[in-house]
């Protein structure tokens, strides 16, 4: 199924949070930005408010909660009180309520085989659902780097997120792809409500992109660069309607947006997933 009107979100993971990338994004009609409480050493929200507070009203802003400063390194928690307080602080630090708040990598606080995992996840989702109802954010979602533990925990009594964010792209393993599909189905979300992240598996400069030609996944792929082809294919691995991508270079963002007009060869994608499974 062809993804309709693929969208781009400017992701701030590993970003230097420079004003020029935000103004460059606006010039390219990219009006969504994604960050997290723990980005930039837990200073992302404050930095955005200080450096580009006048620009933020022009964006829809999504962020994530689940990581907290710890002794020497960040710690993860789904404690309902900590999660709610993190949402309150996010709104204060940004100077506005976020449009969307993701529960960040909930799998990091779930223990293998633990019988109460479902209850822990349900309580965390209920906190976000309640916070959204109270106006602390416009909507809430779940962002998961490894969604494989989650589908078996979902039931009809659990609050349903508006958006799911998962890894996407040619370097995403079949276990993650299948789990993302299962989680999308369990929550009854359409592909337009699913976001992809890390479409290059970390870097456009990785040597793998010199060893393969990703344009085989694009109809008339010869018109695209290899980087553009990797990005465009990510919308179908798994099926997502939006991809969050990070860059500090407006020219790079412009290049990626130029790939959206091309169509993916869905048969090639299907064969690729079959090869991954085999």
Features:
36% helix; alpha/beta; 278 residues; globular; 10 helices; eight-stranded parallel beta barrel; TIM Barrel
Write a brief caption for the model:
With 278 residues, the protein is α/β, with parallel strands linked by helices. 36% of the residues lie in helices and 15% in strands. The strands form two sheets. An eight-stranded parallel beta barrel has the order 1-2-3-6-7-8-9-10.
Write down the Rg. Answer: 18 Å
Q: Please state how the strands of the largest beta sheet are arranged side by side.
A: 1-2-3-6-7-8-9-10
What is the assigned CATH homologous superfamily? NADP-dependent oxidoreductase domain
Uncertain stretches: none
Shape: globular
For the biggest sheet, the summary is: 8 strands, parallel, barrel
Give me the CATH fold name: TIM Barrel
Distance between the termini: 23 Å
The counted number of beta strands is 10
Helix content: 25-40%
**Fraction in beta strands:** 15-25%
Per CATH, the architecture is Alpha-Beta Barrel
Under the CATH scheme, which class?
Answer: Alpha Beta
